[in-house]
Structure formats: structure tokens, C-alpha cells
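TL;DR need C-alpha cells for one chain.
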Amino acid sequence: MTATTGTRGSRGVRPGSRVSEPAMPYRAAARQLLRDTLLDAARRLLEDRPWAQITMSDVARAAGLSRQTLYKELGTRDEFAQQFVIREGARFLEVVEGAILAHLDDPRAAVEAGLEVFLTVASEDPLVRMLLEDDGTGGMLPLITTQSRPVLEWASNRLFQVMRSGWPDVEDEDAELLSDSLVRIAISYVTMPRRSPHESAATAARLFAPYIERAIAAVR
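>> reply
TL;DR here they are.
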């Protein structure tokens, strides 16, 4: 898998390119496999019942590991839930990344394609649908609403890296503002949909594209 990497403010990435991840050392790869095993177990459990009815012992048992190992690798119950939401969100953002980088010559088309594919994939995901049907007792909805700061910061930074890869000369301030705003709008469209993914994406693109175009024109 490839993804954009680095920290905010990094330069020198060729427009439209992706930065390949270096080979992961064995110890790090083993730890990642362990974390994925635990998070995969949680996803399987969530297919049958809400997070509020799932204990950490349930997750450890489903993964075939000890509860002590679960706590050591992924922290408290709340920290585990945050990491789970972030891992699931990464799958969506990989698709968004490809859609944006395929339309670098047309900022409006890039925003529209990225947001539309995100909303479409999210609306078709059974776990997202279950989360959105939560009446407040499921236990996980607050992670993308009232307790969403860690997830928002992670998603905004991930989208920031995509934009720095696609338009490396755009000022960091502009890229940060745009990525944060797009993430917040995307989450609001997912949690409170009023139109189809295509209509919502077209509306957002109409709003944001002029800002991107001005930012690109300023550096050119």
C-alpha cells in the first residue's frame, strides 16, 4: 500500500505522485499485525451488536489474545475505539487520495471526485450505516461528533498530506484550512445526509474550488 507521508510543511514531492512507504522492520510489522488482529476482531463483533455491548474481554477473546495484550497495544477502551475509527477511516481516505490525485489539473473536479467517492463508500459500508443508526446508546457515534477531536486531527492531517502531494507549492496555511474544512463537511454530510453523494460533492466543490484555484494561482 502506498500513501503520502511526512509532516506538515514538507516540500519537494512531485505533483501527482505518491510517496512509497519504506519496508517495515520485522518488529514493527509484527506489532502492526497484532494491532490489526485486534481491530479486525472488533469489526467482526460490531457486525452483530453495538460497541456499548462489547467488552474489551470480548475483543481479546475474539482475537485469540489476552486482555493484557490488548491494553498494552491499544490502551484504554476509549483509546481503542479511537484507533478503530481511525483505522476504518484510513480505508476511505486511500480511495479519496486516488480520486484527488487523478484530477490535479482541475481543482473543482478533484474536490468533487474525492468527496463523492468518500460519501459513496461510506454510505455503502455496513459498519458506517450501523453507526449512523445509533440512537445515542451504541457508544461509538460520539467519536465522530462530540468527542471527535483526535479523529478530526488525524483525518485533516492525512488530507493535508494528499494536498501537499498534489499541489506542493500551495501555502501550508491554505492547505491546512482546506483540509480541515473538507473533513468537517464530509463528516457532516455522512452523519446528516440531505442529498445524494453526487449532489453533496458537487455543492462542496462549487464552494471550495475557487479557494483552491486562487491559492494555486497565487504561487504561480
